[in-house]
Design a protein that fits this description.
This protein has eight helices and eleven strands. The chain is an alpha/beta fold and about 240 residues long. Helix 7 links the parallel strand 10 and strand 11.
């Protein structure tokens, strides 16, 4: 039996277990399991992974950045991004860190962007998901502007001009995730237009408060479900390579 799973601090909102169980059933995969592991500290991840002999696992909020410090072997994209969300146990037993978020994000959104118009993006949040997404944007010639609570550009000095000149707005914060569905980033939504695309890494609920507010201006809205599916499939390919 091959064992896989997801590590995070709070996983009640996660679709990963049901996604992989559905995949196993539909594809007739009978020798694999996927479980959820809630932990309080990133150090616990390695202990549990080794004690259970996990063949691979995913990592989510808030451990994506810390995870790279627990691994001696990192894929090239992790060195560039600075965050791990996928770990594989190699044939010699070593754990290797990867990032599939960048792949999942770009391939879930590129078909919705007019790349002749979208050359700047406002990225809300500076955690592991933000690092993967800004990496994908930069790799595709879109200049990311990062907004964080305590950064040089923050929610107190972000102004309408930043929004008007950036036709892509990406929420990388967990604000609005079930059960706290009324929360949303504090940005000048009045500056959004029908030419904008708003992307939210949140996928539960399907329409977050952020996306709902963006949609009032006619902006195209995309939630994080397809990104989740694509990064999960990319993780599966890594685990079985």
């Amino acid at each position: 039996m091959k064992r896989f799973g997801l590590f995070g601090r709070s996983l009640s909102h996660s679709f990963s277990k049901s996604y992989f169980e559905h995949k196993f059933k539909n594809e007739g995969i009978v020798d694999c399991s996927y479980d959820l592991f809630e932990v309080e500290d990133s150090g616990e991840i390695m202990q549990i992974a080794d004690s259970l002999g996990l063949n691979g696992f995913n990592v989510t909020i808030p451990f994506k950045e810390d995870m790279r410090f627990h691994l001696a072997n990192l894929a090239p994209e992790v060195e560039e991004i600075g965050a791990v969300n996928c770990v594989k146990r190699s044939k010699n037993g070593q754990l290797v860190g990867y990032n599939t978020d960048s792949f999942g994000f770009w391939n879930s959104i590129k078909g919705s962007l007019d790349l002749n118009k979208v050359n700047k993006a406002v990225v809300l949040g500076s955690g592991g998901a933000s690092k993967a997404i800004t990496h994908a944007l930069s790799a595709n010639n879109i200049e990311p502007t990062i907004v964080s609570r305590s950064g040089e550009l923050n929610y107190n000095n972000l102004h309408a001009g930043h929004i008007r000149e950036s036709y892509l707005i990406v929420n990388c914060t967990p604000l609005g995730t079930s059960p706290r569905v009324k929360e949303f980033p504090d940005i000048p939504y009045e500056a959004l237009t029908s030419a904008h695309v708003a992307f939210d890494v949140v996928y539960n609920p399907p329409e977050s408060a952020f996306l709902r507010k963006c949609g009032l201006s006619g902006s195209k809205t995309i939630n994080g479900l397809r990104m989740l599916e694509l990064q999960a499939e990319h993780s599966w390919a890594i685990w079985n390579s």
